Amino acid sequence: MLDAIRSDIVEGIVPPGTALEVDVLAATHDVSRIPVREALMTLVGEGLVEHQPRRGYSVTRLADGELAELFGVRGTLELAALAVAVRLGGPADVAAARAAHDALQRAVDAGDERGYHHQSRAFHTALTRPSAMLRLLGVLDRTWDLTEPYRPMGDLGRDEARALHTEHEDMLTAFAAGDAERLLATAAAHQENLAARVRAREFPTRPAAAPSRRTRHRTLGATRGNRTTEDER
Fold it and tell me: How far is Cα 18 from Cα 196, in angstroms, rounded to an integer?
């Protein structure tokens, strides 16, 4: 249940700012209110959910400037992981990174925005995982999760996607060669290009589309108002 709620938030199925009702989530997942509240409090700790007394739970809405700030944090963490990963990575890690790169290439060629979004993260993960720095990678994952609902790369045109993917190719080449200096320089430039794109644009919270049946079971604001039960306080 925790993973399902987290996935709905990260995937943007439940947009930032959406209120979450304990009773609806409990009914959806066929559990009592207690594990729902526990799951929501875990997500509060991860920064994905906010809780306010007498108002209940809602999906976190980033303030102005926070998305760009998180991209900067994400880039710094990734560079720290890459510095170790390029030294520890072996042939199996290179093969995994190459497979992730190929999957990303297919998404670029197909103009598949959702596929690009998923495969880009998978590629970056394949490059950083060999660092085996579990605490750092955990923080990096949580930071990445906070940026995902906003889909800042969601409107990439094919040309821009290909330009960013060329940078991925350069990162893969450096990683495979064990060239730490080149990898870190290329990755830093790539991260700056991503951060600059975010800084140059504003990403207001997208209004929720007409909710699907699945979404309606997970949201409060669009269908149930702002009613708060005693259990949510």
Answer: 28
Give the CA distances from residue 167 to residues 70, 74, 124, 152, 158, in Å, rounded to whole numbers and listed in that order. 21, 17, 12, 18, 14
The pLDDT tens digits for 155-187 are: 777 788 888 899 999 999 999 999 999 999 999
Matching residue, tokens 């670029």? 108
Pairing of strands 56-59, 19-20: antiparallel
Backbone phi, then psi, for 156, in 5-degree steps? -60, 135
CA dihedral over 9, 12, 16, 21, signed as positive or negative = negative
Q: Which two tokens stand for residue 116?
A: 């690009």
pLDDT at position 216, please?
42
- Given a contact cutoff of 8 angstroms between Cβ atoms, the answer to whether 106 and 115 are in contact is yes
33 close to 233: Cβ distance less than 8 angstroms: no
Give the integer Cα–Cα distance in Å for 148 and 151.
6
Quote the pTM value.
0.80
